[in-house]
Amino acid sequence: MCFVATAVTAQELESGVSRSLAQERTGYIKGINYELTFNIPENPEERVKGQIVISFNLYELRDVVLDFQGECDPRCIINGKKSECTSVQEHIILPVKRLKLGPNRVALNFTSLDRALNRHTDYMYTLFVPDKARSCFPCFDQPDLRATFATQLNVPEGWKTMTSDSSNPIPTYLYSFVAGNFQEKADTIQGRPLRALYLEQDPQKVAQLDRVMNEAAQALKWMEGYTGITYPFAEYGMVILPGYQFGGMEHPGAIQLSDRRIFLGQNPSQDEELNRMELVAHETAHLWFGDIVSLKWFEDVWAKEVLSNFMAAKITRRQYSDVDHDLNFIRTYLTRAVAIDRTEGTHPIAQQLDNLNCASLLYDNIIYDKAPVMMRKLEEVIGADKLQKGLQRYVKDYYFNNASWDDLIHVLDEVAPNANIRQFSDVWVKQKGMPTIHTTYRNGQLVITQKDPYNRGLCWRQKFQVRLIYDLDPSRTITVDMQQPTVTMDVKEPAYIIPNYNGLGYGRFTLDETYSQRLPLRVITTRGDLQRFSLLLTLYDNYLMGRIPANYFGELHRAMMNERNPLVMQTCLNHMHHVAIDQPMEERKTLELCMLDLLMQNPSAEFRRAMYREMARGEALCPDVIDRLYNVWKDQNDPLLDEHDYMDIAYWLAIVKPDEWQEIIDTERTRLNTDLLKQEFDYVSRACNPSTASQRELFNQLLMPENRQREPWALQTLRLLSTEVREPANLDYIPAGLQSLEHIQQTSDIFFPGNWVKALLSDHKDSEALRKVQQFLNENPNCPQYLRNKVLEAAWPLANHRR
């Protein structure tokens, strides 16, 4: 066989990692290993420098292109000989004349960018997903060029470290290292070594690590049983980080977790404990669906997320047997998915990606929340046993390799050839939106009609329940198998019809006008928790569609007087608040008083906690409600509220009581008992200053990446600056905030751009806010569609404001 040496020209390369470059490299590069040395100075202002030796097998003689955004010494060693490499367009070109077919070995010196290093005073951690490894060290930064890693960290004396080094090959985005003045806890559970690094100082919170480690061990055992594949990594390590950008990240051997999600308050609610278990289970499930089997290209990032969410729900169901998991599934996934799918910013679960520098824009509630709904429907179609069999084969066939969603569909189609899985996937995965489903009685029949809002003639295969209620005869529940646009059934005329009775249908379920006007409050109060929760969702969505008046929610509070289910209570409160802020001020205050009345009448602890949080984070304006909040904050003796609850209340009180803002802020700060809490409070509380000049200066600071390193803090600060209380002065933030989106996307982590737009727009009520958004969209037709979608999603409440 004859091999012809080929050279790469600078004109052939573009910044980022293009699909064409990635596909090309996959064809001729295999067997990659990175030997990395990082010199990490104690001063976070000093640059991180390092050395790397990259070994790989070359199957075609040609220039080799590495990805790197930092500074690389052009002098290098290639196959034992001194050479020079060329840097161009965020790439390093290794010359073909120094390379050979088969094994190659390249040594480089480099200086990292800080973009993915997340450096703080006495600790740092890396976060490379989706394409930021190339900002730290030269590499092949694409998911299907897996590699083994060996890392040496030269760190200040006393610092502890953790890495994702493994003899198993992983993609660069899954590689990680952390170093810092951490505390450490190690344990062995069921023969498994587990290790945790953390910075938390509160001994009561640190004690929760015993439970967290046990939950991780249980999740590992469950995943081994479900997949038939033994956990292949040497150690289960976790790093718990303050102000962390995500809930967690699945680096093998060094899983990163948010301290807010792991270390709970003194009296955590069941919901908070459930969320923690789901997070631990999700990141553990990723070790199989994400680490053992990784995506081929980042447009399939959603596939690893849906499988991990799906597994997490199953794991949590087993650990919390006393929880209504159907209700929890609807609350956790379905409601968030519908909230984006009803907007003009929606998109298919599967999206096309041409360059990894846009991969961060794929992350939103469609891939995290609609995809699990789809997966549950898929299991319904194929059957739980066959789905498990298919997933077991999928992990075995692609063990420490890469696969696409279509590869999984191929496996499932072979396991269940009569289930028509490909057609199901084409509608649910590759098309945007959801159906509008209308249920009515006509001429002796129950008529259920499914319509595609985009007139493509699509039909979403799914099952759900309809409840028929009669004045005299027993009520009747019907399961509808929606495999075509219209389904009819012969029934006796009911007094009331409740669509989507069990809440597991996906779409916008419109109430028939005849029956919605008859729907009495007793129907809401006499059903089971799941059914009551589902009906609340249907009522709220019909309000958003203009089919139910706002005053219905004023009456609804009476139905909640004796409510005991915290998820039902919290959902009702959330709906009442969102309806309230749609109304003119007097009507709004009336609804807020109804919520306060609920607090006085319903004595349950869970309700009290949910109510105070809704008041503070929901920006209550009624004077009586503000007074109640002030007294709660002043006394600070409610054991159900934690430090962050009181901090949130203080922020809001300082905004609505501008004459007292400094006193409130100063008082709250004296009550904080850790340096980390004080750092967070000092950062966010700047937004409470009533000076418009100070607010403007702070907003301008947030536009600069160096001032947003703690992204959750930056988002909370922006939301406080953008509150409706400060209209119209803060409307001027909107153009600058939107114009900065592309730069923000390039300088932040994956969830930040979407959350930035929501924080910027969500609390506005002035019609001028919508005009500014429309002006931005009109004047920027070339804004990437991913970013336009995030703007359209966040602006949906402005465009559909019902006041």
- Distance N terminus to C terminus? 74 Å
What is Rg?
A: 27 Å
- Total count of helical runs of at least 4 residues: 29
Number of strands: 28
CATH architectural grouping of the domain at 10-260: Sandwich
Account of the protein in words:
With 803 residues, the protein is α+β, with helices and mostly antiparallel strands. Among the domains are: 10-260, Immunoglobulin-like, CATH 2.60.40.1730; 293-428, Neutral Protease, domain 2 (Orthogonal Bundle), CATH 1.10.390; 691-803, no CATH class. 43% of the residues lie in helices and 18% in strands. The strands form seven sheets. Strands 1, 2, 4, 5, 6, 9, 11 and 13 form an eight-stranded mixed sheet that branches. Strands 15-16-17-19-18 form a five-stranded mixed sheet. Helix 25 (733-739) packs antiparallel against helix 27. The mean pLDDT is 92.
Topology of this protein?
Layout: H1 19-28, E1 29-39, E2 49-58, E3 64-67, E4 71-72, E5 75-78, E6 81-84, E7 86-88, E8 91-94, E9 102-111, E10 123-125, E11 147-154, E12 160-163, E13 166-170, E14 177-180, E15 183-189, E16 192-198, H2 203-206, H3 209-227, E17 236-241, E18 248-249, E19 255-258, H4 259-262, H5 270-286, E20 293-295, H6 301-319, H7 325-341, H8 365-382, H9 384-397, E21 401-403, H10 405-415, H11 421-428, E22 436-442, E23 445-451, E24 462-469, E25 476-482, E26 486-490, E27 496-498, E28 508-510, H12 513-516, H13 521-525, H14 529-544, H15 551-559, H16 566-582, H17 585-601, H18 605-617, H19 623-635, H20 643-656, H21 661-671, H22 675-684, H23 692-702, H24 711-721, H25 733-739, H26 741-746, H27 752-761, H28 767-779, H29 785-799
Parallel strand pairs: 1-11, 16-17, 17-19, 20-21, 22-28
Antiparallel strand pairs: 1-2, 2-9, 3-8, 4-9, 5-6, 5-9, 7-8, 10-14, 11-13, 12-14, 15-16, 18-19, 22-23, 23-26, 24-25, 24-27
